[in-house]
């Protein structure tokens, strides 16, 4: 790649990250957005759940971290906060059902929380039921106040009209810890591919909201990660410079998404212009953060469509 092309690529994705950095502020709302049928519910601290299968990744402790990891419930779901050490939790298919394909699952939450149920464990279990090994990535997060009340006040201040817009940052720097965690996740799965019944060349990644940003960044900046395919679910759709050999892309978004539903579809156009495989589902309704919540909108069908797409690409059966 020439210096001119590299600069053009970085400028384009830099624009994505400028909008994305600002979007992180508003995307925090999705971490606390209930399914349509739920009533408002406050964040309630909880003890860290048992995670016997979680494997610590070799990316170390978040630099400068002083606040320990904590968990809370809200809207009947479970969230992690202040993650300082990344882990990967396997969800393996039943014996005899594995197809050899695998997916790294990246929950969302504005890089300040992780929606572990709705966008993590539930997604991974659904994939395992299809014969696809899934691995939930609990990646490192920005530090937030340890006290729940202080955290709530900090969020209120962040949503206020006087909140300062984040400055543009190089995505490779802005998301460096999270990209490192994703790379370590791919490396771990490949190192244990035989043990887990995974084909090292058939490992993809799916992410939600902030996790979608991480998924796209992993594909563009993850160096040795090299996902075989990626899926971004209600993530930003700004245009990017698509590298040669970019992986097939699956995108799902609701037209009434308050953050990305009216920002154009540049990401789709970029993939098409590069003549790389892309499938885009724009649901009429669903809002932001629908994940695996059972809603009355057609957005609930995103997972079935994703599974059909995986099947179309041959990932729901052993490699012939």
Structural commentary:
With 320 residues, the chain is of the alpha/beta class. It has a single domain (3-312), classed as 3-Layer(aba) Sandwich (Rossmann fold). The protein has 9 helices and 12 strands. It has helices spanning 3-31, 117-129, 148-159, 171-174, 176-191, 193-196, 210-221, 266-273, 302-312, and strands spanning 44-46, 55-61, 70-74, 77-81, 85-91, 102-106, 113-115, 133-138, 203-208, 230-233, 249-254, 278-283. An 8-stranded mixed β-sheet has the order 2-5-8-6-9-10-11-12, sandwiched between helices. α8 links the parallel β11 and β12. α5 (176-191) crosses α7.
Q: Can you describe this structure in just a few lines?
A:
With 320 residues, the protein is of the alpha/beta class.
- Which residue ranges are poorly predicted, with pLDDT under 50 across at least 5 consecutive positions? 1-40
Question: What does the largest sheet look like?
Answer: 8 strands, mixed
Number of strands: 12
Radius of gyration: 18 Å
């Amino acid at each position: 790649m020439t210096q001119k092309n590299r600069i053009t690529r970085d400028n384009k994705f830099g624009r994505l990250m400028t909008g994305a950095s600002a979007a992180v502020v508003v995307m925090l709302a999705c971490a606390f957005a209930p399914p349509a049928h739920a009533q408002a519910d406050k964040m309630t601290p909880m003890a860290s759940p048992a995670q016997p299968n979680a494997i610590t990744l070799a990316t170390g402790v978040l630099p400068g971290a002083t606040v320990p990891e904590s968990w809370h419930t809200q809207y009947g779901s479970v969230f992690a906060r202040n993650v300082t050490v990344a882990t990967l939790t396997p969800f393996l298919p039943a014996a005899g059902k594995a197809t050899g394909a695998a997916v790294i699952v990246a929950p969302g939450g504005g890089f300040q929380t992780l929606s572990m149920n709705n966008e993590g464990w539930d997604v991974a279990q659904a994939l395992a039921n299809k014969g696809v090994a899934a691995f939930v990535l609990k990646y490192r997060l920005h530090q937030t106040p340890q006290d729940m009340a202080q955290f709530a006040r900090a969020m209120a201040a962040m949503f206020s009209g006087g909140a300062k817009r984040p400055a543009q940052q190089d995505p490779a720097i802005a998301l460096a810890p999270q990209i490192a965690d994703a790379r370590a996740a791919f490396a771990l799965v490949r190192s244990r591919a035989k043990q887990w019944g995974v084909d090292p060349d058939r490992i993809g990644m799916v992410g939600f909201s902030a996790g979608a940003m991480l998924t796209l960044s992993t594909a563009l900046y993850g160096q040795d990660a090299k996902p075989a395919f990626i899926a971004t679910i209600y993530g930003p759709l700004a245009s990017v410079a698509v590298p040669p050999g970019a992986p097939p892309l699956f995108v799902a978004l609701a037209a009434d998404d308050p953050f990305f539903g009216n920002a154009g579809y540049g990401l789709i156009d970029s993939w098409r212009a590069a003549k790389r495989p892309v499938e885009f589902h724009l649901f009429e309704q669903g809002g932001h953060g629908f994940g695996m919540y059972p809603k009355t909108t057609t957005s609930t069908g995103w997972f079935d469509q994703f599974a059909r797409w995986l099947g179309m690409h041959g990932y729901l059966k052993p490699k012939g």
